[in-house]
Design goal:
By secondary structure, the chain is of the alpha/beta class. It has helices at residues 2-15, 27-32, 34-40, 55-61, 90-103, 118-133, 148-151, 168-177; strands at 46-49, 67-72, 84-87, 108-114, 137-143, 159-162, 187-191, 205-207.
Length: 208
């Protein structure tokens, strides 16, 4: 998720001793006062956009003395001229997840998405072909929090990929209430920086 992106970005900046600031500029802000928005970022060496949003703002920065970086969570998201696009290697990630499921003796991955963010759906769609190319069955499960009491007991003995790690803590809480233990009653894995799983017991497996 984008929250995991921010975690990883801040962690790496701290390791490399790079000063980093966060700014919130909306589409509406830029429409109302484009000059002010551009001035806010005038003294930065690099501007990182974590998603395809704010296209008009980025276009206004073309030709300025600043490196524009846009993070593309999936390789299927549109490329953009004049911008350095960094893509997370989800292809390799899902190959590794599939390999782990096979090593543990599973023939199916249950891809669990909690919430209705369109980006989560994009990631689910992207992973399906990679998982099936590995010879596994892809089972897609979409749920909201009020569905979990029904959904969680059905996860027993499955290999579950958790698609929205930012809500993993709430998921664990519901599992505890139902007396179902991730990692014991079902296998659980996901992709994250590691911050999300801190203090969760038992700690789930995850890939960075």
């Amino acid at each position: 998720s984008f929250f995991e992106f921010y975690h990883g970005l801040l962690d790496k900046a701290a390791i490399d001793k790079i000063e980093i600031s966060t700014l919130c500029i909306t589409e509406e802000d830029f429409e109302k006062n484009p000059t002010e928005c551009i001035q806010k970022v005038a003294d930065y060496d690099v501007i990182i956009f974590p998603s395809p949003q704010l296209l008009k703002f980025r276009q206004a920065l073309y030709g300025k003395k600043v490196l524009i970086v846009r993070c593309s969570m999936l390789p299927t998201w549109q490329k953009e001229p004049n911008v350095s696009v960094v893509t997370i290697d989800y292809t390799n990630a899902f190959k590794q997840v599939s390999k782990k499921a096979i090593e543990l003796g599973f023939d199916k991955i249950s891809f669990l998405t909690i919430g209705d963010n369109p980006w989560l759906k994009d990631k689910s769609n992207f992973s399906k072909d990679i998982i099936e190319e590995s010879g596994l069955i892809f089972e897609e499960i979409f749920a909201h929090f009020n569905d979990l009491e029904t959904i969680i007991p059905k996860l027993k003995n499955k290999f579950v990929f958790f698609n929205n790690m930012v809500v993993l803590g709430e998921f664990y809480h519901e599992c505890s209430r139902l007396k179902i233990v991730p990692g014991k009653d079902f296998q659980l894995t996901g992709l994250c920086s590691g911050n999300t799983v801190l203090n969760l017991m038992p700690e789930p497996s995850y890939m960075k």
